[in-house]
Design brief:
The structure is a homodimer.
Chain A: H1 8-26, H2 33-39, H3 44-47, H4 54-78, H5 84-105, H6 109-119, H7 121-145, H8 153-163, H9 178-196
Chain B binds a DNA duplex (30 and 30 nucleotides) through helix 3.
Chain lengths: ~200, ~200
DNA sequence: ATAATAAATATTTTATATTATATTTATTAT
DNA sequence: ATAATAAATATAATATAAAATATTTATTAT
């Protein structure tokens, strides 16, 4: 039995940690496989036993980011004593803050995101699908509590996401100030929530 | 008196026509000042009597596009017998169709837009300001007719624009199908309109 | 057999020279 | 004087060679 040895998954995770650190500090293009390998005390060639290529490492990094963002939303969904309205506001502001923070702390990540957005649209689509189902949960909750009256929960969740694109998409983080985006986000969600209100 | 001569403005307009045609067909980068000049039967150097440089020509092209889009909205504002709700829907769909058409007919224009978005953010900001005031007019009309109850017309107009960013921004035209965007746009505006309804 | 490395090869990036183009200036025509 | 051009120059794009890096393969160790 291997006790002190690392499992394959643990090694992959170690590689991802090292890669993410470098991608965030120096960018995807300026990070070499040799450097990632060195950080893990292995040879460059050995990386290929765990990842088929550099793009897959990048994809996994992006995937981790997206999973993080999804987890933040799940935490908000788990919070008790939060109205559906406040949950919707919270998830939008949370994601906006997460994104803006990420890119102001680690500007080179923008390159990674642009790259993966182009190369792996499937990952982005999956992520949006997950977000949609999380929004749908909040809408369904709102229907139960009587706060909302949403016949098509999934369709409306999709529309909600579309309407909050500006606060949910890396593209705009570089162009606008966080404070301005936060204010706009609050007003947009306010409008949408009024639209959801039972009358 | 000059009767058969062109005025300076007419010449600028001729230059813009030629440039726009080439930018749309071959892209900003692949279009040379010499080519634009030849289309106008003049020397390359002479272009500089009318535009300080190539960037200014591009900026004027982008400006013309934005003015076109604004004009489309004004036509919709002028239409009689259209509810404020339908006006809002119409402007969003009109802009979306205009953008998508533009870029599917002339893909190289995307390069121009990216260039100007980066180099002349002031132009984009002005355009958005104009759009905001046009939306505000519709909201104010809605207040008058009793269809809406919007205390802060300008602020809400801004929020409306933010919420329809996905259908108003060149960036997304390449990523999504027109039909899908149209459906999403309709649903988003529907949500927003319900939010605006008097209750 | 599994895991890793080091060496070999294929790709990509970078640096550099060359060319093309943007812009300015000098010159000519009206 | 104004308008235009052609020639001159500055800048940017392109092609090419060199170097660096990604990926594969052969080899070694466990």
């Amino acid at each position: 039995m291997k006790i002190l040895e690392q499992t394959s998954e643990e090694i992959k995770s170690q590689i991802l940690d090292a890669a993410f650190e470098r991608f965030g500090r120096y960018g995807f293009g300026k990070t070499t496989m040799a450097e990632i390998a060195k950080d893990c005390d292995m040879s460059a060639g050995n990386l290929y036993r765990y990842y088929t290529n550099k793009k897959e490492i990048a994809a996994d990094c992006a995937g981790r980011c997206m999973k993080n963002a999804e987890q933040l939303w799940r935490e908000i969904l788990k919070q008790p004593d939060l109205s559906p309205q406040n949950r919707l506001t919270a998830i939008v502001l949370e994601k906006l803050n997460y994104l803006h923070q990420q890119f102001s702390d680690h500007p080179p990540l923008f390159e990674l995101v642009m790259y993966i957005s182009g190369e792996r649209q499937d990952l982005v689509a999956d992520h949006l699908g997950t977000l949609q189902s999380l929004v749908a949960e909040i809408l369904a909750e709102g229907n139960r509590t009587g706060d909302f009256n949403v016949p098509d929960v999934l369709g409306t969740a999709k529309a909600f996401l579309a309407a909050t694109t500006k606060f949910n998409t890396p593209h705009f983080m570089g162009t606008f100030e966080l404070k301005e985006l936060e204010n706009e986000a609050r007003e947009v969600v306010q409008l949408l929530i009024q639209g959801l209100a039972r009358r």
